[in-house]
Amino acid sequence: MPPPVHGAAMIGQYIHDSRQVNTTFDCRYINLSLANSLTDIGKPSMKKMLNYLSQLRKIKKEARQFNPDLVYVTPSAEGNAFYKDFFVVQMLKRLGCKVVVHYHNKGVKNSQGKFFDNLLYRRFFKNLKVILLAEVLYDDIKKYVQPEDVMYCPNGIPEMQ
What we know:
43% helix, 6 helices, alpha/beta, single chain
């Protein structure tokens, strides 16, 4: 969810605001962003760390109380943002949630050669369904995800009414 305003956040906002999604499903939304602006992305701070710990508690509480059939997450593909999202997804799995991740970026293949990242990716993608924007993006995750566990959703700007 924005801010900051970027592709994945905008898609999250479209889903959040979708009448069709919200009348078809009983949804709860938790914004996983720690950045408040584009210049804030990738810059660690104590405020972000405390906010992250608060988010983890909120996610755990909500998952236990709501007991969702499915949890939709838009994770980052690499770096510190991936590590943050890794812990969120692992916690959700431990709580018994079925998780689907929607990738709006590439980067897994860039980091899969690193021993530690390779271990995390193996665990991260285990028992997950993945949504990609296009089939050409499958190459980025093919080391960890079988084709039958991938769905494609070419999304864009919604029609304005």
